[in-house]
Automatic annotation (TrEMBL):
Pfam families: 2OG-FeII_Oxy_3
Protein source organism: Polioptila caerulea (Blue-grey gnatcatcher)
Keyword Transcription regulation: no
Any GO molecular function: iron ion binding
Residue ranges of domain Fe2OG dioxygenase in the record: 140-242
Name under which the protein is recorded: OGFD3 protein
Amino acid sequence: DGVTEVLAHRSENLQDKFLEIPCSEDYASQRRFAGCTPRKCGRGVTDAVITREEAERIRRIAERGLSLGGSDGGASILDLHSGALSLGKHFVNLYRYFGDKIQDIFTEEDFALYRDVRQRIQQRIAQVFGISSSAMYLTKPTFFSRMNSTGAKTTHDEYWHPHVDKVTYGSFDYTSLLYLSDYSKDFGGGRFVFLDADSNKTVEPRAGRVSFFTSGSENLHRVERVQWGTRFAITISFTCDPEHGIGDPLLA
């Protein structure tokens, strides 16, 4: 891996840490949206937006939803927006598959907390990058992930490959991750790694910690394979293009 620096240790309680880096060319070829398209690029970490208690409540939402399915491999996802849920080697639509039983799994309070957390993360990203929160739109996929050390059964389970969000998903301009469990306490491995030319920079997950960054190739990254335990997180993604915006999930 060459030189590795820790950007955020699990033991730290970070108010705000931000590293500005030059923007890649990825945004130049796309339509620009005033007040939103990145002109300042970088990556930030904060433990001051979501409390540990809120992260535990959010993790319980993930645990309840994922208990209905789960991948045969090491990575399971739950997308409350589209209803996508890992089941064996495939995905099902949670809302169609379970119908009215969903009301027994999730509550209105769960969805209200999810919305509130999403809004606070959106506002923090806007503040740090000097853009307008109202010019940002939630985009897909926005999803819970549960990772463990089970071997991969399909390519969906291979979460550890280096990638660029803007290349993978197209619509992403800003990516955030809210961690819902603790590195070295709840799981081993599974650190988030930014792959820079001179060194790798890692973020050690901590419940309630938010890591956020511009989605272009200035932030090539990967997740280490989980060695033991279970790692929970939620990926919340934003676009500047209203045509790629999605609404908050609703309990039907």
